[in-house]
Amino acid sequence: MIDPHAPAPPGTPPPWRAPARIPVRQATGRFLVLAGVFVCAACGLVYELELLALAAYLIGDSVTQASVVLSVMVFAMGIGSLAAKRLRRHAAAGFGAVEAALALVGGCSAMALYAVFAWTGDWGGPWADGPRWLMVLFSLAVGLLIGAEIPLLMELIQRVRRQDAGGAVADLFAADYVGALVGGLAFPFLLLPLLGQLTGALLTGALNVVAGGCLVLGLFRRDLTARARRLLLTANVAVLAVLACAAVLVDDFERAARTAVYGRDVRVALQTDVQEIVLTGGTGGRPLDLFIDGRLRVSGRDERRYHEALVHPAMDGAHARVLILGGGDGLAAREVLRHRGVHRVDIVELDPGVVELADRNPALAGLNGHAYDDPRVRVTTADAFRWLRDAPAGAYDVVIADLPDPGITASAKLYSQEFYGLARRALAAGGRLSVHAGPVGSRPRVFWTVETTMRAAGLHTVPHRVCGHGSAFTAGRAPGPARTPHDWGFVLAAPHARPALDAAGHALAPRRTGLPASTLAHPRY
Catalytic positions (predicted)? Predict the structure, then answer.
């Protein structure tokens, strides 16, 4: 008589590792498990890319944010893998629960982060740490759940058909990596342009929960107790319901969030292939404001002071041929065209959506003086750095760099020594280069790094500054903290030494020395 309580012979697998009672053949079951791995891997990478994109769009400094998200997520994946060892005894139920939680967290992450950005006003001020910690928490949660998938899937695939560990790992990771490839390509080329960040994340969550639920409740349902089946089915339906409700309400959510960010007088809101563009105001005495990716780029209240300071000092001399890098809003071109003797103005703008808005929107076109109607203005859609590499030498009397702030990682190459070397080559003898270098008072190191980098490229520089309200341009005399809401720093440069800014004001003093130049290989901003 066999004693049921006697210990099992050595080498006998525990009961929970017995072959799974699946309703299909082993080969079909194995294929279905690998298909589930493929889908879940694709969804996991989409969550990761979504967090990276939101961090770069809403917080800025994409290198830092990408490093934080990736490092936290990879660390969490390791912890999740270790934690999942305790769930191997209930691999099917554990995997179903993990996928439901991952679909809910990953699918709703974009809306949660965007909501915090919209309703706290900014990522700075008293809320500076909260949203960043929220991003870290989402990265941690998604990483933990993704890491828990692999041990559980390894257990499930071995229960379908036992094979050597090396072969099982190879099959599992092959499906995982191919799925990651598909998810990585689908995010920028399909989900983001067609559905946007919010709807794309919600749809990914729905696909994730359906794939995980079908695999567990379909293929491994006989390994689950009746109570476990009911709980998993209820959890999956609840997650799908939450994601579906969020998808139905996403348009209303976006409008409410946009109102929280920009106010109630939004004139235009569009998402181009490059960025989000929002135009507000222009009626009822409110100034016309242009926002790019949630950041104020042009304020009709005082943009004229900025563009006068950027353009007019550089126009003191020959200015028949002018190149504007950036400036797709047409406002720098407006100031250039105020000068007699201008024969040609070339604008190199990365985003054609900005140019189209500045040309066709009545309010913005009125603000830029209908600059695009002038036959002397010609527009090229291109990256400014790449375009300068092919620009003819000595072709321009004036080059105006009306570009995003140097502190934004994506624009760091446009403030590099190599970039200024290309701009110097494009200048004719006696030509001038004018650059917006960021605020002097609040970010002096960035400002003086720009000036140092321009000198390293062989340019003679005259830094200057404008701040305060009014319609006339007055340069600042000292680099102390600005007492007004706006503080713009500029650098006027030329291949050969020029006198100080006689008409524009006085050079800033004292100059910061000892700062290294910024290069493509070693950005300093």
Answer: 402 (proton acceptor)
Based on the fold, state whether residues 445 and 331 are members of the same structural domain: yes
- Residues 256 and 311 both lie in one domain: no
Question: Environment class of residue 11 by beta-carbon count within 10 Å: exposed (0-12), middle (13-18) or buried (19+)?
Answer: exposed
Exactly one of 223, 346, 402, 487 is catalytic; name it.
402
Q: Which two tokens stand for residue 39?
A: 């889908």
- Residue 442 to residues 292, 407, 438, 489: CA-CA distances in angstroms? 21, 12, 9, 11
Whether residue 346 is annotated as binding a ligand: the answer is no
pLDDT digits (tens, 9 = 90+) for 91-122: 999 999 999 999 999 999 999 988 888 887 55
275 is in an annotated binding site: yes
pTM (predicted TM-score): 0.79
- Same domain for 217 and 101, yes or no, is yes
The answer on 339 and 244 residing in a single domain is no
Average pLDDT estimate for 174-194: 94
397 close to 322: Cβ distance less than 8 angstroms: yes
Concerning whether 252 is annotated as a catalytic residue, the answer is: no
Domain of residue 440 covers 302-494
Residue 373, marked binder: no
The total number of structural domains that make up the chain: 2
pLDDT tens for each residue of 212-225: 999 999 999 998 99
